[in-house]
Amino acid sequence: MLSYLILLLLILTTVSYYLGRSRSLASVSGRTQDLHSLPSYYGFFTALWCGLPALIVFVFWITFQPTIITHLVVAGMPPEIQGLPEAQLNLAINDLKNVVSGNIVSSNPNPAMLAAAEHYKNLQTISSAALWVTVLALAIGGIAYARRSIAPTLRARNKVEMTIMVFFIASSTIAIFTTIGIVLSVLFESLRFFQKVPVTEFLFGLQWSPQTALRADQAGSSGAFGAVPLFTGTLLISAIAMLVAVPLGLMSALYLSEYAAPKFRAVAKPILEILAGIPTVVYGFFAALTVAPIVRDTGHLLGLNVASESALAAGLVMGIMIIPFVSSLSDDVINAVPQAMRDGSYALGATRSETITRVILPAALPGIVAAILLAASRAIGETMIVVMAAGMAANLTANPLQAVTTVTVQIATLLTGDQEFESAKTLAAFALGLVLFTVTLALNAIALHVVRKYREQYE
Question: What pLDDT, in 10s, does the model give residues 269-299?
């Protein structure tokens, strides 16, 4: 039903645009030069008055409707249900919603629950009808008000542009506050973790085994939260990936920008960038089913002890995945080097290879370094390839033939399934996330700083 309401609102908004436009033309008998703004702005002015207030009410209504209906239904339930502990009351509310939607409930519903479900359905019906009436009334009222306000002197363009600017400001503000909320949530949970585990043990400990007892009367490990094995595993796999991606990506960028014909470049670059659009889980399957067995069998032929899941297999596939990041960014940087520098080098008698090594690469080096740092951030944050090809063993080793794990893999593991957010095991995921956030933020900040200096130098 809500989708039909949205569709009807879109139709009314479209119709209101043409009504506002025709109204503006009619007010000056078709002489557009007598209007303050173009006729299309009067159409947009009417459309905004039709759609914007109705859409705002619609969003707030569907956001708060379930909570309000739930409170009204619970308030009408028997006192013995209202007096239940919070956990049991939440379970009863969940059963109530399952009864309303026709899903399986945790227990057989009693008459009180069935009556509450019927009350819930009635309130939903009343709320939906009221939503339709309110939204359509606002839309139609907005059209009437906008049409009555249209006059040759109406500054429609200014009002429309002001509305759009306010929308942009609100969007950016929401994005900023969302970012701040994410950072603060990770930070506060990390501080709770560091109240249970010392910072020095977390940052410098050599053993990672986060299994802990959830209750005082439960037998279990006290946990070891030394994150050094996770840091070394992350750096090892990322280093292997960069050793693969940087040479291949940089050489392909040089070829596409300096040697390839325009027709070949127009075909080859999009094909190369397809690698960036392949889901990481596909790379993970490729690493687990193809690359890891090849690495293992090759190592056995050479007399080496290679684990079935190794850092080398994950690093090789991850390197293939981030080649487009290095190649595309480096290609853009190399093409940004002024043509006058190339022409000057050729005029002095330098060959193409000498021009590349002595003129183009030094000039593009800051941008290339920034591309490499951004690719490193991408490698550090990868999860699926590591899970499927490198294993989950927190081994403190620099041997790429052994199984290792990374920070992102452990975050995913610690937060999978039912968790107790009072235990150090679960809170450790937030501490790892804080470290990962700090590292990637630093790399991105350095990369952006280098790019900014580069642009100032050659623009």
Answer: 888 888 878 888 888 888 888 888 888 888 8
Residue where one domain finishes, among candidates 153, 170, 185: 153
Q: Tell whether 102 is covered by a domain.
A: yes
From the list 321, 444, 317, the residue with the least C-alpha distance to 372 is 444
Q: Which of 222, 224, 230, 192 is nearest to 412 (CA)?
A: 230
* Lookup result for tokens 């207030």: 53
This prediction has a pTM of: 0.70
User: What is the tally of structural domains in the chain?
Assistant: 3
Q: Same domain for 365 and 324? A: yes
Residue 93 CB partners (closer than 8 Å, separation 6+): 70, 74
**The domain spanning residue 403 has which CATH number?**
1.10.3720.10
Give the torsion sign (CA, 218, 224, 227, 230): negative
| Residue 114 Cα distances to 69, 75, 125, 167, angstroms | 16, 15, 17, 45
Sign of the C-alpha dihedral, residues 424, 425, 427, 431?
A: positive
> Is residue 224 within a helix (H) or strand (E), and if so which, with residue range?
strand 224-225
The CB density around residue 124, as the number of other CB atoms within 10 Å, is 14
Spatial contact of 11 and 5, defined as CB atoms under 8 Å apart: no
213: three-class secondary structure by DSSP: coil
Question: Are 399 and 250 within one domain?
Answer: yes
Residues 183 and 70 in one domain: no
116-141 pLDDT, tens digit each:
777 778 888 888 889 899 999 999 99
